[in-house]
Amino acid sequence: MITKIYTDFKYLTSSKESHLNPIIWAQIDKISLEEKKRKHHFRYTSFNLVDNYKEADYWMLPNTWPHYVIGKSQHLAKQFCEMAFKNGKYVIVWSGGDPEWILPYKNAILFQEGIHKNIDRNHEFVFERPGFVEDYINLYFNNHWMPIFNEEPTIGFCGQADSRFISKIRFYIRNTITKLKYKFGISAYLPIIHGYPVNLRRKVLQLLSNSSSIKSDFIIRNQYLAGIRTKDSIIKKTHTTRIDFAHNIYNNIYTLCVRGTGNYSKRFYETLCCGRIPILLNTDSILPFEEFIDWEKHIIMIEIDEMNNISGIVNGFHKKHSKLELEKIQRSNRELWVNFLSTTGYYSHFHLYNNIILSKDLSN
């Protein structure tokens, strides 16, 4: 199904790829049609950029929301959304990065990673976007995948769960300033609610390490990406710490996934990509396509007030399912990532949102 979109390039303030709504970028990328289909795939073929705004299912801001904010051009976004509202159209607003923004427009539809579920908003529709990752099975395991099983639950984690004292001080100072700005309406950037994320990870890992019924396989770093500073994506992918990271997920049936600076865990999607079972600490999270996917069949969700019993919950889940059932879940998770949460899978199913949004009358 093709989703028809409209934009007005008078409101385009930058043509830099990282500043563009990726759906708009796929439409205007100056390459041949065949190259577009190969490079953008469903991000291009699932959408049709129309000239007549009346024919469009949605209007789209051409740039990402952070670019309008950082570039101090929110007045342009406001004009665009107001014009769409007068014509009875919703506006898709694409946001990225860790900050979660509260949009001031009734007809805005926010797509972003790390959205909080229970936050008062001026607009009705917010949808969690996956944290897109490359196919680790292809990248690190030569396209060879198979499920695993152990009699006792094995839980992996490789990443930052410790930090220098100065990093903690900086976090609390910055987050306190953000809270004050948000409280007094100076900023629409939502502060971090659950405290220093690294501390939260460390606490949960300690609870699991202390359990005699669980086998833990934890590699603790004191810096994000183990301190890799290069911008070269090839070096990042082939660095021994990234290989260790991928193998830690693949070699354990479960992986602990706790939010970072943004209210989401990229590790969650990497675990599904590897066909393993995420243990997700729920920090008021929204999951992608949760209107269509029965997430209880794919993951273990731990509520914050259940955190102290995490080992009991995981152990109970593991004992409840047979070897064949656990292997089936792993296979289903791999298929879920390929079909819905990979870049091509996500955009090929974007039209599912039409059933939710377009049935609503904007005037109500």
What can you tell me about this protein's structure?
The protein has 2 domains: 3-130 and 345-357; 136-339, Glycogen Phosphorylase B (Rossmann fold). It has helices spanning 22-28, 33-40, 42-45, 65-70, 74-86, 136-141, 165-183, 197-209, 233-238, 240-250, 266-273, 310-320, 323-341, 343-348, 352-357, and strands at 3-6, 47-49, 58-60, 91-94, 100-101, 108-112, 125-128, 154-160, 189-190, 215-221, 254-257, 277-282, 300-303. The two termini are 27 Å apart. It has 364 residues and is of the alpha/beta class. The strands form 3 sheets. A 6-stranded parallel sheet has the order 2-1-3-4-6-7. A 5-stranded parallel sheet has the order 10-8-11-12-13, sandwiched between helices. Strands 5-9 form a two-stranded antiparallel sheet.
Extended strand count: 13
* Beta-strand content estimate: 15-25%
Give the rounded overall mean pLDDT. Answer: 91
Q: Which structural class is indicated by helix and strand composition? A: alpha/beta
Topology order in helix (H) and strand (E) letters: EHHHEEHHEEEEHEHEHEHHEHEEHHHH
Question: Largest beta sheet: what is the strand line-up?
Answer: 2-1-3-4-6-7
The unreliable regions are none
- Counting copies of identical and different chains, the oligomeric state is single chain
| Percent range of helical residues | 25-40%
Structural Rg: 21 Å
